[in-house]
Amino acid sequence: MKTLNFLLFTFVFLSGCQMAKKATSEKEALYEGQKWNTKQAITTIAFGSCDRQDLPQDIWKAVAQNQPDLWIWTGDNIYGDSDDMKVLQDKYMKQKSGKDYSAFRKKTQITGIWDDHDYGVNDGGKEYPYKRESKKLMLDFLDVPRDAPVWNYEGAYQSYTFGPKGQKIKLLLVDSRYFRDALESSKMEGKRYEINQTGDILGEEQWAWLKRELTNSEADVHIIANGIQVISEEQGFEKWANFPKARKRLLDLLTETRPKNPIVLSGDRHIAEYSRIKTNDLDLPEITSSGLTHTWGELREEPNKHRIGKLIVSLNFGLLHIDWSKPAITFEIRDQNNKILLANELW
Q1: Which residues have C-beta within 8 Å of that of residue 291, sequence separation ≥ 6?
Q2: Per-residue pLDDT of the chain (347 residues; tens, 9 = 90+)
Q3: Contact 226, 113 (CB under 8 A)
Q4: Is residue 281 within a helix (H) or strand (E), and if so which, with residue range?
Q5: Cα separations in angstroms, 207 against 6, 247, 250
């Protein structure tokens, strides 16, 4: 009997060790640093935002059908909304280990930036007390290698260049949370925020970085990705236009540095739309794609004097197609069935 009990104990102990080892290895597999191929020319980029980890994730199958070379998160990559980093980590793990997204990330290079819900607090800015801890969780979710410079400075802004000479894409992931000043609340119905005339969004260190990245850049395409809308001025929610001094500074910087083929990608709004500013000094398109798992659902009016084409309220993700033979850049907004809802030529 003693021998039988000993053998039974040994079996249970070894089985438990194997299960623990398996669980540990599975967890480690979710936090492996990416080994990107930055030398090869990129022809298809997918992007999107606003993904509740507890809602159906069917849209990833549609994204995968387009075989993108790169996926860019433009914020609300999860809905964390917590001061408890264990809560945020568990939600990131749920999103990352989901069947369809997990299959997608095994075949696609993934990068991105946060907005507010994944940052940890709705409409949050520099006042959020756990922003350093939250940043680490986001970088792990994105599989950013531990030797990447972003681990060693304040904020989550990053720069990556893809492709050979003559086909270079510079991706600038702009952090509109970590350094952002306070929003001015509004008492007007249908308008959440008023204008903060003196407030900033990026902080001086990030402004200096952005200027360095844009000045004399040799890239052929420049993609500026951040969580909130840059061009839209009239909607009453979060946007760069709530901080007109910072918005003007950004547009002036683009005018001064004149990067080739600039494109803004944004999220946050639970809609999709195409906006464009075109003056004698600056031509800047912006694609907002927001609503991987949830959107407004029903169409309602929202003014945007810069909008081109219709407002999309269906579930959606975005695509950029680069034809290097011309060259030409087009965009598409597609739904969960991979149907094109909106498309246009950018450059």
Answers
A1: 48, 49, 50, 270, 271, 272, 313, 314, 315, 316
A2: 544 444 444 444 444 444 434 333 333 334 456 677 888 999 999 999 999 999 999 999 999 999 999 999 999 999 999 999 999 999 999 999 999 999 999 999 999 999 999 999 999 999 999 999 999 999 999 999 999 999 999 999 999 999 999 999 999 999 999 999 999 888 787 778 889 999 999 999 999 999 999 999 999 999 999 999 999 999 999 999 999 999 999 999 999 999 999 999 999 999 999 999 999 999 999 999 999 999 998 988 899 999 999 999 999 999 999 999 999 999 999 999 999 999 999 99
A3: yes
A4: none
A5: 66, 12, 9
Q: Which of 292, 227, 284 is nearest to 253 (CA)?
A: 284
| Domain segments of the chain as ranges | 42-345
Q: Are 261 and 166 in contact (CB under 8 A)?
A: no
Q: What is the DSSP string of 282-335?
A: -EEEEEEE--SS----S------TTB-S--B-SS-EEEEEEETTTTEEEEEEE-
Report the topology of domain 42-345.
Purple Acid Phosphatase; chain A, domain 2 (3.60.21)
Question: What distance in Å separates the CA atoms of residue 97 and residue 204, rounded to the nearest whole number?
Answer: 37
Please state, in angstroms and rounded to a whole number, the distance separating the CA atoms of residues 321 and 217.
21
C-alpha dist (Å) from residue 331 to 59, 97, 334, 335: 18, 29, 10, 14
Q: How long, in residues, is the chain? A: 347
Cα pseudo-dihedral 77, 80, 86, 89, rounded to 10? -10
Q: Is the dihedral of CA 265, 266, 267, 272 positive or negative?
A: negative
Specify the DSSP element, H or E, that contains 88: helix 85-97
